[in-house]
Amino acid sequence: MHGPTEPEGRCPSFWITGPNPHGAGVAPVHMLGDKPFCLYVSEAMTKRHADGSMHFYPGIVVEDEPGYYMTDWDYGIGFADAVAAVIAANAKRGMGQLEAMDILASSMRASR
Q: Looking at the domain assignment, is residue 100 inside a domain?
């Protein structure tokens, strides 16, 4: 699945803003269907550009679903910068790092 340019915070139409399942008073998280999701990036999630440079592109990981959906959001050539951008994007949606890791772990368990 591909979405629009992420840095401005525009959401694809399949994202639904919902209440945070982790408690009242917490910023809402985005849902895919009825499941929370987070952004994730690894050192392997790259695409080569015309100039030969490798750029990082995050994926969308959905709770309890195996794998991830690639985005077309270019997070640049530095892995540390891409990770920081993913953490910031998740936080903007009310998703802390521990919640994101829980979603990632649930996806890994579902992949077995």
A: yes
Locus of tokens 């998703």 = 95
pTM above 0.85, yes or no: no
Residue pLDDT tens, the chain, 112 long: 333 334 344 444 444 444 444 444 444 556 777 888 999 999 999 999 999 999 999 999 999 999 999 999 999 999 999 999 999 999 988 889 999 999 999 999 998 8
- For residue 9, being part of any structural domain is answered with no
**Counted domains in the chain:** 1
